[in-house]
Amino acid sequence: MVSLSRLEPRLRAAADRFQQVEARMAAATDGAELVRLAREHAELKALADIVEGLSQARSDVASLEALLAETPAGDEMAALAEEELKTAQERLAAFEHQAQRALLPKREEDDASAILEVRAGTGGEEAALFAGDLVRMYQRFASLKGWRFEVEDANETGLGGYKQLTATITGPGAYGVLRYESGVHRVQRVPETEAGGRVHTSAATVAVLPEPEDVAIEIDDKDLRIDTMRASGAGGQHVNKTDSAVRITHLPTGIMVVSQEKSQHQNRARAMKILKAKLLEMEQDKAQAARAADRAAQIGSGDRSERIRTYNFPQGRVTDHRINLTLYNLDDILSGPGLAPIIEALMAEDEAARLLALQEEA
Fold first, then answer.
1. Residue 309 pLDDT greater than 70, yes or no
2. What is the rounded CA–CA span in Å between residue 220 and residue 216?
3. What is the mean pLDDT of the chain?
4. What radius of gyration, in Å, describes the C-alpha atoms of the chain?
5. Do 276 and 216 form a contact (C-beta atoms < 8 A)?
6. If you classify domain 114-354 with CATH, what class do you get?
7. Cα(140)–Cα(161) distance, rounded to whole angstroms?
């Protein structure tokens, strides 16, 4: 665990500010100021509670250590004090970890819903089938989380794979959890069409973008070309006879998005959301390029050229190369539940790196 000592001034400052806000709320009469103070109070209260708990835990540890120092070894009281001290130290460690997490700069986009893009990479039809496996993995994982999974656009192959699929995953914190999935996913297995039983290597790319709020990025109408067309299903078969599908092209960048799962009005709104997310990603990529020296320390940076994970079917093995984590429960991972431990490990690694950076800044 990263040391908390260098972050103590930030903890004290937050606790002091909480007291100031409470005092000001008691005296304020202006409605707008009260709203602003109430919002700040709510943001600071959790940290203030942690600081209070941390102070009490430290006091308990100090008292028990003093009691042990004064109690003869082997005394019954000493044994009881040792047990209580162990519990108090565990409680102190928990509060220290909570304090560290509370001090991390909040990433607003982590609370957002997510836009998922899965594309078949190298490997032909086998890559498309693997892309389909990944899509179903994310569908099941989203269902377990209580999130809504909606397909916006898909190019499905005749064998049940996907050349490309775009979906929205709606639910609080969906992006913050799934952001670590961005990158190249590699599969090693014997294709169903391989008569010789040889293991082939294929790949699919995954991109996870935060679904932006309407105010996140402005787009000039004159920069858009909007086309309507008939929605299509698997194999190019038309699923309706009305021009309900919407294709929006952003002329300055050439980015094109399609939504064909709802009414024309809904499709247009969804396509605009996806376009905003793509433009937001471009801006973020520019900012990240300017900080290229720091990228190596980032987990799940979203660089699609990175091979982040390998799914080896003959060995039933999944390896996440970013944290050197190997698990032998491939079926459980592809069915959804087994994905959680991988993401949790990535989140923990990311958190540790951010805490270290925060400590170095202090």
1. yes
2. 14
3. 82
4. 26
5. yes
6. alpha beta
7. 16
Determine how β-strand 245-250 pairs with β-strand 224-229: antiparallel
Question: Tokens representing 160?
Answer: 């049940």
| Residue where the block lists tokens 């920069």 | 223
pTM of the model: 0.66
> 73-120: per-residue pLDDT in tens?
777 888 888 899 999 999 988 888 888 877 777 787 888 899 999 999
Q: How far is CA 334 from CA 149, 179, 201, 315, in A?
A: 16, 18, 17, 14
As a whole number of angstroms, the distance between CA 360 and CA 300 comes to: 21
Report domain extents, the chain: 5-103, 114-354
Local structure of residue 239 (DSSP, 8 states): S
SS3 264: helix
Q: Any residues with CB less than 8 A from the CB of 14 and at least 6 apart, and which?
A: 44, 47, 48, 51, 103
Contact (CB, 8 A) for 155 and 100:
no
Which of 151, 278, 268 is closest to 207 using CA atoms?
Answer: 278
* Cα–Cα nearest to 217, from 176, 275, 270: 275
CA dist., res. 259 & res. 225, Å (int): 14
Given a contact cutoff of 8 angstroms between Cβ atoms, the answer to whether 302 and 208 are in contact is yes
d(CA 302, CA 160): 27
Give the pairing of strands 183-189 and 307-312.
parallel
- The DSSP 8-state label assigned to residue 270 in this structure reads H
Which residues face 248 on adjacent strands?
Answer: 226, 257
- 7 — phi, psi (to 5°)? -100, 0
| CB contact at 8 A, 99 and 50 | yes
The length of the chain, given as a count of residues: 362
**pLDDT tens by residue, 247-263:** 888 888 888 888 877 67
- pLDDT, tens digit, 9 for 90 and up, residues 323-346: 999 999 999 999 999 999 999 999
